[in-house]
Fold each of these.
Amino acid sequence: MARYRGPVCKTCRREGDKLFLKGNRCLSSKCSLEKKGYAPGQHGKTRRTKLSEYGMQLREKQKVKRYYHLLEAQFRETFQKANRSKGITSEILLKALESRLDNVVFRLGFTTSRLTARQMVRHRHFLVNGKLVDVPSYQLKSGDVIQVKEKSRKLALIHEAMQKVKEGKQLPWLQLDKANMRGTFLEVPARADIPVTFNEHLIVELYSK
């Protein structure tokens, strides 16, 4: 399966925002954006170009795409599905991204990054409603239960991630049973409850051209 294989810390510097692509490293003093608060490349320190309208739309799309760790074709397909649905396209897009299995695995605290969540779903470590699901883009529905597979419960990666999960800190649409390594997707989140500061309307404007 195709995936981005370049240095992910450079993508945070390029977007000028933390995208939390490296798990614990993003929260430490080793964070590349904290150490080098400028864009990558030879002229990163001196580049002060004012973005055009198109440039702002493109940067916002790139930021959201990289935050959820998707390639262009995957992101465009998600947008097209949102655009065909009834309602506000920008909100439907974000809700669809948040409802992905790999994102929810990360949000519940089973992994420290979406990249790791994506890999672990692919490697068949999680069950949804008691059935094995190895598709990271799988869209969860209200009431779906996500659980670490019995044989995977001793994995150090999962234990290390869950040690950092604080009780009572779950998002309102998620419920975690830490002792049993199980979480419930209570409902599709409202836009106001999604903890991101993206201007997703710019993405709709970009794809509408």
Amino acid sequence: MRYSPQDEVGCLNYPFALLARGDGDTENVVWGTWQGIPMTEFDYWYYKESTDSKGNWNRTNYRFSCAVTQIAAQCAHLSLDREGTLTRLADHLGLHDIEFESDDFNQGST
């Protein structure tokens, strides 16, 4: 495995919705073969800026650790994320989604 504090392999080019959120970058990239499996691991961070009704500026930072590998299969697109306001509203309207074993994950707790 190789390591670089900067992204030398172009991780932002992966076709994942997460990598298009906000303004951000990748760092701490590890890539190579692990136990015969090609892998890339990296940290991704982004931020969003906003202002409230009084003009106060706010910046929210987000950080993720990501791992990517290829498998010999064709799969449908799948994305797992925490519950948000809209998905909770859908639950109350009777449009239930999949419940996972982790209550923290299901409830969107941090």
